[in-house]
Amino acid sequence: MTTATRAKQLGFLQAINRAQTEEMTRDERVILMGQDLRANVFGAAAGALEKFGPSRIRDLPLAEAGSIGVAAGAAMAGLRPIIDLTVASFVFGAMDQFVSQLAKARYMFGGQATLPVVVRAALYYHGGTAGHHADRPYPMFMNVPGLKIILPSTAPDLLGLLKSAIRDDNPVLCFEDANLWGRKGRGPIPDADHIVPLGQAAVRRTGTDVTIVGIGLGAFLAEQAAAELAADGISAEVIDPRTLVPMDWPTIFESVTRTGRLVVVDPANRTCSAASEIAARVAEDCFDALRGPLVRVTTDDTHVPFSPALEKQIYPSKDKVVAAVRRTFV
Amino acid sequence: MTTATRAKQLGFLQAINRAQTEEMTRDERVILMGQDLRANVFGAAAGALEKFGPSRIRDLPLAEAGSIGVAAGAAMAGLRPIIDLTVASFVFGAMDQFVSQLAKARYMFGGQATLPVVVRAALYYHGGTAGHHADRPYPMFMNVPGLKIILPSTAPDLLGLLKSAIRDDNPVLCFEDANLWGRKGRGPIPDADHIVPLGQAAVRRTGTDVTIVGIGLGAFLAEQAAAELAADGISAEVIDPRTLVPMDWPTIFESVTRTGRLVVVDPANRTCSAASEIAARVAEDCFDALRGPLVRVTTDDTHVPFSPALEKQIYPSKDKVVAAVRRTFV
Amino acid sequence: MTVSTEPTALPAEFACAGGRELAMEMMRRMQRVRLFEEATKVLFHAGELPAMVHLSIGQEAAVVGACLATGTSDYMTGNHRSHGHPIAKGARLDALMAELLGKATGVCGGKGGSMHLADFSVGSLGESGIVGSAIPVATGAALAAQVRGSGQVALCFFGDGAASEGVLHESMNMASIWKLPVVYFCENNGYAVSVTAEESLSVPDVSMRAAGYSMPGVTVDGQDVLAVYRATAEAVRRARAGEGPSLVEAKTYRFHEHAYGLQVPTPYRDQSVVDSWFATVDPLTLFHDRLVAWDVATSQELDALRAEVRSEVDAAVEFARVSPFPPPEAAYTDVYKEVTA
Amino acid sequence: MTVSTEPTALPAEFACAGGRELAMEMMRRMQRVRLFEEATKVLFHAGELPAMVHLSIGQEAAVVGACLATGTSDYMTGNHRSHGHPIAKGARLDALMAELLGKATGVCGGKGGSMHLADFSVGSLGESGIVGSAIPVATGAALAAQVRGSGQVALCFFGDGAASEGVLHESMNMASIWKLPVVYFCENNGYAVSVTAEESLSVPDVSMRAAGYSMPGVTVDGQDVLAVYRATAEAVRRARAGEGPSLVEAKTYRFHEHAYGLQVPTPYRDQSVVDSWFATVDPLTLFHDRLVAWDVATSQELDALRAEVRSEVDAAVEFARVSPFPPPEAAYTDVYKEVTA
Ligand SMILES: Cc1ncc(C[n+]2csc(CCOP(=O)(O)OP(=O)(O)O)c2C)c(N)n1
Ligand SMILES: Cc1ncc(C[n+]2csc(CCOP(=O)(O)OP(=O)(O)O)c2C)c(N)n1
Ligand SMILES: [Mg+2]
Ligand SMILES: [Mg+2]
């Protein structure tokens, strides 16, 4: 790809910047808080401080629980905070605030509270950051009612979903697969006010023999695998859910009902993964259509090792997806 | 049941007390820490302070993250702490310490660290405690490699598993279904030094037509349902995994391979539940044997409402299990 | 050092215009908390409560003195000992009582219950059964007030037990660096269930932690409603003036067991001492006697006020009793807000 | 107030028997940290490092002064800025360097990497990439020492940024109520990535938080290895004597970017100021000049020591380079301990 065409493409960090800028311009209740925003260390906050001022752009001290709780309270009192937690491995310190406050306050107070909060966190695996920076913890949050979760695999989707998330009156967690920050995640620059509604999957490729549901980088791998399988005469349909909660079950069910086979590609740890949920749900609701085992391609149940000699093998790969698809035919 | 026979039965709180007392007597590295232990507010610590003294029996201040981290550090420095977190809804505040320290330290330090820590927490649902005391969060922890998880459904199993957990050199989370504290969880008093190894399921009832895997109170409901189904000529096999990590897959697979049908009864929230994992794994590894949809009976994906008019309906019940089994035959 | 007011002369707060009304409102709200909770004891013994309740009896002066230093447009968060806070903030008793019985007319539609009352109409943003967990929420409400420039203040209740939770530290630090209009208010009743404050706190006074965040900290006599009011009012003034957060600690007493009816196997405090509290540090009696001594009200007037509140409470109990339970479907609503901006 | 030592007379610590050895060991360990990290810069530029590294250059006096006040049987935990702590605690350089390259011979078998070094053989219980997360771990190690009556102490490193995390508060409180033998040691280098300590802390000195937990707190000149050593040694003495925890803060400087090679889009500190630090507050230069002035060592001797350390570092780099990578299966071991008691 030449520099010229690449310049016309939207990247992940630009998508975030654009979504945040557009929505903060549109609605002055939206504020942005995160570590190192003013110095723009992560690269998605360029120009924000100049444009929106220090009251709406705040650098957070290191206090994850406090930060999420502050966002919950600010939302209950009329703001629409975006919290940039930077790396998804930092969510754990705030888990009580996610579960006990953000997810439950509306329900427990009988609908009195409204919590329009967006929390962004990058899935920072696959890059030698080792066990403390490489978590993919979204399945934990799927187990918590009251939270919505998006996990886009292209920059245009990220832009459109993030804007929907900021407008949503519910807490939305946005997980960004850092492996898509570069070339893999780029896409055509959408028109002004590009919106992708929450809860709608994208069918990346149509096919008839097997359905591959791919999450985050998994969607990219699924497309690669589908191309390889096509050469072998296997026609794979690739679905990117984009939103994990609420999941677009109709699109997945319709596809599996046609193909009779399912592979789910999910960068999360295997046990109790999003892939587990999708497989379980399909085994429950599409059983009669099934013609082969439901196969999950996930990260192996181990921690992320530092050594470049160890790390890559534990994640989903195109080859693992291809092998999984073949397994559904045995 | 007369008072005399009941007296010969072991209850949940007695099982805990006995396991802790036996193991603390056996190994002076075992210490017990928790809130309100000296006053024995939860009822499982009777006599502990007198027997083992204030150095080994400590009341914790309200500081869940600190408590789990302290346990991790104490274990790395030679003790074998038991932490009584009392109610499972209090685990969230400590999530970072569970994930980043307890689960990962051994791995990240290349095996230098050993973390023999037991964390106990009661699943306190079904009793009008509302949204902040009624969580069943074990599926979140199943997504974290490095932790073992037990969830016994009878007092004798609790005794034997807890003793194994205390002797295990890995962090073990013990979730105790508070609905089994009373009559439902009682069982015959075992002999001295009763051990149930981690990772071995119990077949509670043998059957040929359908496998019901029941977790915690779910095992009790599964047995009730199996009795009712038997009257209808349906022969249900009931399996209580007892340990969720490591799961006894061979026992489950063997059963489903024979029966061709699976229902999982799990008090956790539905999405990304233990039931999802079991169903997904069976759909992957036992597909050829399956003769009907894999059905999960879980708590509905909502928060726990306070009102007695609202609460019970959201949980698994005997009737829901029976209906689920019937669904596997359609 | 614990600050009390001097019982001698009529205090300035009550001598000025509206002073008598303020004094009577203090007494009215303390009576509301007391009689509301006395009623829950009756309901408990009658087996009409679906769950245990944590009573504020003995702590009324702390709760009311603090809340009356704010207005209903100000924010407040509390904890599991959850009845007093919204009552003191001005919430209607009927919907609170209905909530305790899990009724559809409850302030949370029956979904919250005793430990999780909230009444947004009076700025009560909700209590938390997870101890300490609402502290950052109050801090965030203060942030919203600051960003919106609304002049509102957030009042954040927590106990001596909660003072050991990390979120208190994180919140006080954020509030201080951003000069947020929030008042951290510790009801130090000496116990976290069975653990004494001496055992769980590493300092004699929680207020000694304030210096670590460059905010003023003061400890007041929590049985003295005026002392509490004064200290909180000063903290509220600071907050509204943009001078940032404060920490106010009220030393108080929990007259009943941690949860009413809870049986603690091993006693951790002497019943005779507890009994003596009723005689010597009952905040309602103390204030009653001062009001009479200061000629703010007569005993008869105060009796009449009590009778009024009693009728209010009786009506609330009746309202709660006759109210319907929510329909089963209600268990599944309010998980998400359906219609969105 | 920041405590420095007086540069005039030969200090007691170095005048006594073994004093010269102590002084030389301070210099040796500071050189080890410095040269080890200079070597990682070379590896970084050569593209031989699998990931970014966070350098302690500029902070050597703080790290070494603190660690030398403990013994190798004492415990220590650190953070993401992770090389200096185990080196100062006495770890071998070769296994540390091999870890940075992800080799099988690395101190963590290649599984931890730069941010997560640990060397249990010298009491280094591991560093944490999750900021603040190891603070309770150190506290727990101190608990174990207390329960076992072993006389060991735990040294807990954290930064000015980590000081805002709730676990610090929870840990210091527990340590104080139980009088645990732990020393909380804050390397206040003025920044958490781009955020200044003035912006993120609500107090001028982190040590001002100590009073909130009834423990002594002191701020020392972190460029003065002896001042750090003295303050830490006193805290260690207290801890061993059963008098409980202390908080020591070293005001220091981070000479390089947060992570070496990191490009921060918007500058947050002036490069000319940073440059002047190398000239004025380099802890190695400062100590070098004092040692010469005090006649503890000659310039030649110190040059020789530096040369020795350089060979050690060169050998470590060579060892790391020629070491094999771990076999793929190693990714799946150590998740659990297989054989159990
Ligand atoms: C995070 C958390 N840990 C433990 C509990 C159990 N618990 C409920 S109230 C309480 C004591 C709280 O003490 P304090 O903050 O002083 O409030 P008080 O009950 O005295 O009003 C405890 C330990 C809880 N609800 N939440
Ligand atoms: C819980 C957590 N939040 C955020 C980060 C990202 N991060 C890494 S280092 C750092 C700054 C830490 O500052 P400080 O504690 O002063 O240590 P220093 O880097 O200055 O040595 C931040 C924000 C992290 N690793 N962990
Ligand atoms: Mg208390
Ligand atoms: Mg720093």
UniProtKB/TrEMBL annotation, chains A, B:
Residue intervals of the Transketolase-like pyrimidine-binding domain: 10-183
Source species, domain of life: Bacteria
Gene3D superfamilies (alphabetical): 3.40.50.920, 3.40.50.970
Name of the top EC class for this enzyme: oxidoreductase
Keyword Oxidoreductase: yes
SMART domains cross-referenced by the UniProt entry: Transket_pyr
EC id: 1.2.4.1
Name this polypeptide is given: Pyruvate dehydrogenase E1 component beta subunit
Organism of origin: Actinophytocola algeriensis
From TrEMBL, chains C, D:
GO molecular function annotations of the record: magnesium ion binding; pyruvate dehydrogenase (acetyl-transferring) activity
Keyword list, A-Z: Oxidoreductase, Pyruvate, Thiamine pyrophosphate
Enzyme Commission numbers on file: 1.2.4.1
Positions of the Dehydrogenase E1 component domain: 28-328
Keyword hit for NADP: no
Cofactor: thiamine diphosphate
GO BP of this protein: pyruvate decarboxylation to acetyl-CoA
InterPro entries assigned to the protein according to its UniProt record, in alphabetical order: DH_E1 (IPR001017), PDH_E1_Alpha_Subunit (IPR050642), THDP-binding (IPR029061)
Lineage top rank: taxon: Bacteria
Name the UniProt record assigns to this protein: Pyruvate dehydrogenase E1 component alpha subunit
Organism: Actinophytocola algeriensis
